[in-house]
Design brief:
The chain has 505 residues and is of the alpha/beta class. Helices cover 36% and strands 17% of the residues. The chain contains 18 helices and 15 strands. The strands form four sheets. Strands 2-15-9-12-8-3-4-5 form an eight-stranded mixed β-sheet, sandwiched between helices. It has a three-stranded antiparallel β-sheet with strand order 1-10-11.
């Protein structure tokens, strides 16, 4: 790395490459920022780490118990489901990796062997596309040659985005199941799915084949949400044709799609974010807990709105009144000697108020509610913490790569401290472009190192839940929600023998 220090200190992108980046629809200013971050990573050997001072728990107020609410009119605060669904199925289908390679080579004998091995592992009891089920039948029948057309069809279906892959053994896809869940919750105003580039028509075709009542939109995670690969000198990596190579810039880039929600759903106040592979089902407990979470968000946001309006007209009496209402909603007592406004900031948002004039600016930040599930002591990943960000201790929904090995051992690997697991449900006020512009040079990014065409390359990914789950940027509350709401399908065998009837009661 020392040998690269001079090159990394004099970063530039040739004019021709800048022109190509611009022509591709990528944001050149963003690419320059990413180049600086990659150079920083290459110089230091690590992405930024946030020093943890403590984990967020119920017993220290970092996580709040799930409150009961009296209920508001749902139409007062319309919410739209927003589902990141651009992910590939490669990790989910890891057991099929060897079979895929054999099919690509059309090595008939090896295909037979791989299918036989998969059958021995129990794959026939997993959700499978119809082409693969046909392949199994052929292998069981004793054929010696796999039709070329069938091999091609299996490869196409296996290569589909995870959202379009079967989630249950009777054929419903993850997209199908998620749409049924959203409709069963009954209080959402629409749904949006973020799909890979050039896959919008596939998503809409799948959705239209099974009509639902909720209006559905599909946004592509295209070049405007991408970044480019850089080489070990932080120069833009070029392909054989001399063109920049671009890749998705991580879930954090999806924040730039949120202003578009207002164009498609003008009345919407918030988005309900859930991962495509978290299948909770439609049991009474799941539906009532989902509605409760959304209702808590609505009631809290109405209080926040009232506080904002009071502050804008410099009405300290009303600001105190609505702050007290918000505290009562969350089960926090405010005695007569305490300022309710300051207590909201310190106890709910964990934000310091150094000057009373700052209150209006602080309350102008987006309100976010993040549902955390209790840790089973087997969960591996980040959690919400109090951490040093930019020289100030803040509340943060931390991802593992941003914690040092020492902090991981002390805070994240100890179930007594990591009492909860990173967010399952997120409800967030819809961001506008001015907010995103102010967040442009945020610290919540990572550098991915990959092998590409025989060489090491690097690119930046930003993290959506750190952006939304940071008291630096948002007025965020972490709340405990029932574990039944968290059921991710990370491998093919997570859905063994599960039919749609199992989840969709």
């Amino acid at each position: 790395m020392d040998g690269n220090s001079n090159n990394l200190a004099n970063l530039s992108i040739p004019a021709a490459v800048e022109g190509a980046i611009d022509a591709m629809g990528l944001n050149l200013a963003t690419i320059r920022l990413h180049q600086r971050h990659v150079a920083q990573y290459l110089s230091s050997g690590t992405s930024c780490l946030f020093k943890i001072s403590d984990s967020c728990r119920i017993n220290n107020g970092g996580i709040m118990p799930f409150p009961k609410v009296s209920g508001v009119k749902f139409e007062d605060v319309p919410i739209v489901a927003f589902v990141p669904a651009a992910g590939a199925s490669s990790r989910y289908l890891m057991p099929m990796t060897d079979l895929v390679e054999s099919l690509r080579q059309l090595d008939h004998q090896m295909v037979m062997r791989r299918v036989t091995e998969l059958l021995a592992s129990g794959v026939a009891s997993c959700p499978l596309p119809d082409s693969f089920q046909e392949l199994i039948r052929l292998v069981k029948s004793g054929v010696s040659v796999i039709p070329k057309e069938l091999a091609a069809r299996v490869l196409v279906q296996i290569d589909a985005p995870k959202a379009l892959y079967p989630a249950v053994t009777d054929g419903l896809t993850f997209l199908d199941v998620k749409r049924i869940e959203h409709e069963a919750i009954g209080v959402l105003s629409g749904e949006i799915y973020v799909c890979p580039p050039n896959k919008r028509d596939d998503f809409l075709h799948q959705a239209n084949s099974k009509q639902r009542k909720l209006t559905m939109k599909c946004y592509e995670q295209g070049p405007s949400l991408a970044t480019v690969r850089f080489d070990s000198s932080a120069s833009v990596a070029l392909d054989e044709a001399g063109q920049p190579s671009y890749v998705p810039a991580g879930h954090g880039a999806l924040a730039h799609l949120l202003p578009k929600v207002k164009l498609d759903f003008p009345e919407a106040r918030g988005v309900f974010i859930r991962n495509i592979d978290n299948i909770a089902g439609t049991s009474d407990e799941v539906l009532s807990s989902s509605r409760q979470f959304l209702n808590v968000f609505r009631e809290s946001l109405l209080c926040v709105d009232a506080i904002r309006q009071a502050l804008s007209r410099q009405d300290s009496s009303d600001a105190s009144k609505y702050s007290r209402q918000l505290l009562i909603l969350w089960g926090i007592e405010a005695d007569a000697n305490e300022d309710p406004l300051s207590k909201v900031l310190s106890r709910l948002f964990h934000t310091d108020l150094s000057k009373i004039n700052d209150a209006q600016a602080i309350f102008a930040r987006p309100f976010v509610l993040m549902g955390q599930v209790p840790n089973t002591k087997r969960d591996v990943g980040g959690t919400c913490v109090f951490a040093d960000v930019g020289g100030k201790v803040q509340k943060l929904c931390l991802e593992l790569p941003h914690a040092s090995s020492e902090d991981r051992k002390i805070f994240l690997e100890d179930p007594a401290k990591a009492t909860h697991f990173n967010p399952v449900f997120v409800a967030a006020e819809i961001l506008d472009n001015s907010i995103l512009h102010a967040w442009a040079d945020h610290p919540f990014w990572l550098v991915a190192k990959k092998s590409w065409r025989g060489r090491d390359v690097y690119y930046q990914e930003s993290i959506l839940y750190e952006l939304l789950g940071s008291s630096q940027h948002c007025n965020v509350i972490f709340v405990e929600i029932p574990r039944i709401l968290f059921n991710p399908h990370k491998t093919l065998f997570d859905a063994v023998n599960k039919t749609s009837d199992f989840w969709l009661s």
